[in-house]
Specification:
Blueprint (H helix, E strand, L loop, with lengths): L1 H18 L10 H4 L3 H17 L6 H9 L1 H7 L12 E7 L14 H12 L4 E9 L8 H5 L6 E9 L5 E8 L3 E9 L5 E9 L2 E9 L13 H34 L4 E7 L7 H7 L3 E2 H5 L17 E5 L5 E6 L11 E5 L9 H5 L1
Parallel strand pairs: 1-2, 7-8
Antiparallel strand pairs: 1-12, 2-4, 3-4, 5-6, 6-7, 8-10, 9-10, 11-12
Cofactor: Mg(2+); Mn(2+)
GO molecular function: endonuclease activity; hydrolase activity; metal ion binding
Protein name: Endonuclease/exonuclease/phosphatase family protein
C-alpha cells in the first residue's frame, strides 16, 4: 500500500507539474487540476520525511517530485524582509471594483470615499486601474478629474461599457510622466480588456500594459459553506473552464503585441488566474514576476471568501531591475487588494529585443 500510494502521488505530481505548460484550449480541465499542486507538495513532503525515517529507498520518488516541483514553492510563498525604498519608478495596479459605488452611482458610502482618498494620497508614479468607473456629469464621480488633472497625472482611459457623456466603465493608466503613445491590445466589450501606454521616464521610455483578462465570475458568496458548494460546484466548474480557455486566447494576442514592443515592458493587472496556471507560467517564461523577485509572504490579492487567491500581478522584462513589491492587504475597499512595485532608474533601460536577450 505504501509503495502504491507513493508511486501514485509521484506520477500525479509529475503530470500536474508539467501540465501548466499545456494550453487549456487543448485540455480545458487540466487547469482545474493544477489547483491541487500546493496539496501535492505537502503530501510529497510528508511522504519523503516518513520514508526517510523508515529508511526506505522509496523516499527517492517524493524527493524527485519535490525537486521538480520546487518552483511552485517560490510562486506560492516568499520569505524575505522588505527594505524601505525611497527612490525609483513606482507602479500601482488595482482592480477598484467601480469604486464600490451603489447602483445609483452615488459616492455616499464611506468605502467609496476612503478608496478615492487613498488613491489620491498614494504617491505611485504610474497607476493602473481595472474596473474603473467614470462619470463626468457629477464632480464626486468624475474619477479622471480627481485622480488625474487635480493630482498632476497624465492619463489614458479606455471605455469598455457605457455612454461617454454620462457614466462609463473601463480601464485606465495614470502617469506622472508624459504618455507619448497609447493603444488598445484587446477590446472585449464585456468587462475585460488590455491597454498600453508608452511613458517617457527621464531619458528612457517604457511600455506599461494594463490587463484585465477574462473573469472567472465565481459566485464566491455562494461557496462559503458546504451547502453552497454542493449547489453551485457544477456551475463553478463550467465558469472556470470557460474562463481558462478565453484567457489562453487573450494571452496569445498579448504575447504577440509585447514581442513587437520597441521598449522594455511592464505588465500589470488582474489576470484572474492563480500562479499554478498556463497563463502565469507562460508569462513567467518570458518575464520576471514582481512577487517572486521582491515580494513577501503569500501575497494573496483576492478580498472575498476565496481569500487564498493571488490573481493580481506585476510582470516585467529583464531589462528592468525591481527593488520592492508589496501587496497592500490593509487596503480592503475593493474585492481585490492593490499591488505595487518599485523599479530602479539607476541604469539605462535597454530598448531593443536584441539588447533584452544579451
Amino acid at each position: 500500500m505504501i509503495r502504491f500510494l507513493t508511486s501514485f502521488f509521484f506520477l500525479v505530481s509529475l503530470a500536474l507539474f508539467f501540465s501548466v505548460y499545456i494550453s487549456p484550449e487543448y485540455f480545458p480541465y487540466v487547469g482545474l487540476a493544477t489547483l491541487t499542486i500546493p496539496l501535492l507538495l505537502v503530501i510529497n513532503g510528508f511522504l519523503f520525511i516518513a520514508l526517510v525515517l523508515a529508511k526506505r529507498k522509496l523516499a527517492l520518488l517524493p524527493l524527485i517530485a519535490l525537486v521538480i516541483g520546487w518552483k511552485f514553492v517560490g510562486v506560492t510563498f516568499q520569505l524575505r524582509t522588505q527594505p524601505e525604498v525611497e527612490n525609483g519608478l513606482s507602479v500601482l495596479s488595482y482592480n477598484v471594483h467601480m469604486f464600490s459605488y451603489n447602483k445609483n452611482g452615488d459616492l455616499k458610502n464611506s468605502t467609496s470615499k476612503n478608496l478615492i482618498q487613498w488613491l489620491k494620497e498614494n504617491p505611485a508614479d504610474i497607476k493602473c486601474f481595472q474596473e474603473f468607473y467614470q462619470d463626468p456629469t457629477t464632480p464626486s464621480r468624475n474619477s479622471i478629474k480627481q485622480l488625474g488633472k487635480e493630482t498632476g497625472y497624465h492619463h489614458f482611459y479606455q471605455v469598455i461599457q457605457g455612454n461617454p457623456k454620462s457614466s462609463t466603465f473601463g480601464m485606465a493608466i495614470f502617469s506622472k510622466y508624459p504618455i507619448i503613445n497609447e493603444g488598445i491590445v484587446l477590446d472585449s466589450r464585456s468587462t475585460n480588456g488590455i491597454i498600453f501606454a508608452d511613458i517617457k521616464v527621464e531619458k528612457d521610455t517604457i511600455r506599461i500594459y494594463n490587463a484585465h483578462l477574462e473573469s472567472m465570475n465565481i459566485p464566491s458568496a455562494e461557496l462559503s459553506d458546504f451547502d453552497g458548494i454542493k449547489e453551485n460546484y457544477r456551475q463553478t466548474l463550467r465558469k472556470l473552464k470557460r474562463g481558462q480557455v478565453a484567457r489562453a486566447s487573450q494571452l496569445e494576442i498579448l504575447m504577440e503585441h509585447m514581442e513587437n514592443s520597441p521598449y522594455a515592458n511592464i505588465l500589470v493587472g488582474d489576470f484572474n488566474d492563480v500562479p499554478y496556471s498556463y497563463t502565469y507560467f507562460t508569462l513567467r517564461n518570458i518575464m520576471n514576476n514582481g512577487f517572486e523577485k521582491a515580494g513577501k509572504g503569500f501575497g494573496f490579492t483576492y478580498n472575498k471568501v476565496l481569500f487564498f487567491l493571488r490573481i493580481d500581478n506585476v510582470f516585467f522584462d529583464n531589462a528592468l531591475e525591481i527593488l520592492d513589491f508589496k501587496t497592500h492587504s490593509e487596503v480592503d475597499y475593493s474585492d481585490h487588494y492593490p499591488v505595487s512595485a518599485v523599479f530602479s532608474l539607476n541604469k539605462p533601460i535597454k530598448k531593443t529585443k536584441a539588447e533584452f536577450e544579451e
